[in-house]
Amino acid sequence: MSQKRHIEPLLWSLFGAGGTTIALFFPAMILVVLLSSLGVIPAEALSYERMSGFFLNNIIGQLALLVVLVPSYWACIHRIYHGSHDLGMHPGVAVKALCYGGTLVLSIATVVAVLF
């Protein structure tokens, strides 16, 4: 019996976190934009200056931005990679390393860009 360790459970957990994030936050974001366009929420509440101030100059906003973006990257790349199997393409280990490595680099770049 092989004791070989796999990284696949970690990747599936990141996919699950991203899927949960997308399912919880994106409908709320769509609702806020819809309510703003209907006039229920004043348009100045979602102005560029106000939103960028909240998301880039406030630690709560920065953490919220990271919680929404970074797990979403992992869910998307995992869906794309495994979706390619459903389409009959079977990328090798090099493509898998490139996909997930690129997502790791993008995640780190996002953290650096938002927090520093």
TrEMBL record:
Look up the domain of life of the source: Bacteria
**Residues spanning the membrane:** 12-35, 55-76, 97-115
Q: Which SUPFAM superfamilies match?
A: Fumarate reductase respiratory complex transmembrane subunits
Q: Which GO terms describe its biological process?
A: fumarate metabolic process
Q: Which UniProt keywords apply?
A: Cell membrane, Membrane, Transmembrane, Transmembrane helix
Pfam families recorded: Fumarate_red_D (PF02313)
Report the InterPro entries cross-referenced here: Fumarate_red_D, SQR/QFR_C/D
A cellular component term, taken from the record's GO annotations: membrane
* Protein name as it appears in the record: Fumarate reductase subunit D
